[in-house]
């Protein structure tokens, strides 16, 4: 419960968890062999099924956790400002 989406069980939420979930959804017969606890872990959005929606939900979780460090120093506003300066200069 505390590690929602941590499918590999290593305590971290990363791309390997997403890959693992993708594989399991693609090979549903593997999911049938899992314990109820493991299945609960795969059911990221807690709707009782393990399917593409859980892949989406895990994607969202991954994006949220990685968006904390800002990787976009140049915002759209900055770009617009730079463009305006270029165009707006009287010749
Ligand atoms: Ca993991
Ligand atoms: Ca689900």
Question: What would you say this structure looks like, in words?
Answer:
- The structure is a single chain.
- 56% of the residues lie in helices and 0% in strands.
- With 91 residues, the chain is mainly alpha-helical.
- Helix 1 packs antiparallel against helix 4.
- It starts with 14 loop residues before the first helix and ends with a helix.
- The chain has one domain.
- The chain is rod-shaped, with a radius of gyration of 20 Å.
- The chain has five helices and no strands.
- The site of one calcium ion has 8 residues, from helix 1.
Q: How would you describe the shape?
A: rod-shaped
Specify the helix fraction band: 55-70%
Task: State mean pLDDT (0 to 100 scale).
Answer: 84
Q: What would you call the structural class? A: mainly alpha
Number of helices: 5
Order of helices and strands: HHHHH
Low-confidence stretches: none
Domain count: 1
Please compute the radius of gyration using only Cα atoms: 20 Å
Please write out the topology:
Blueprint: H1 15-26, H2 28-31, H3 36-42, H4 52-66, H5 76-88
Structure described in brief:
Helices cover 56% and strands 0% of the residues. The protein is mainly alpha-helical and 91 residues long.
């Amino acid at each position: 419960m505390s590690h929602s989406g941590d499918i590999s069980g290593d305590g971290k939420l990363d791309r390997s968890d997403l890959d693992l979930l993708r594989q399991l959804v693609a090979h549903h017969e593997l999911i049938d062999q899992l314990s109820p606890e493991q299945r609960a872990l795969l059911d990221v959005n807690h709707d009782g099924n393990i399917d593409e929606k859980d892949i989406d939900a895990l994607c969202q979780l991954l994006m949220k956790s990685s968006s904390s460090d800002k990787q976009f120093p140049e915002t759209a506003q900055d770009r617009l400002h730079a463009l305006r300066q270029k165009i707006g200069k009287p010749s």
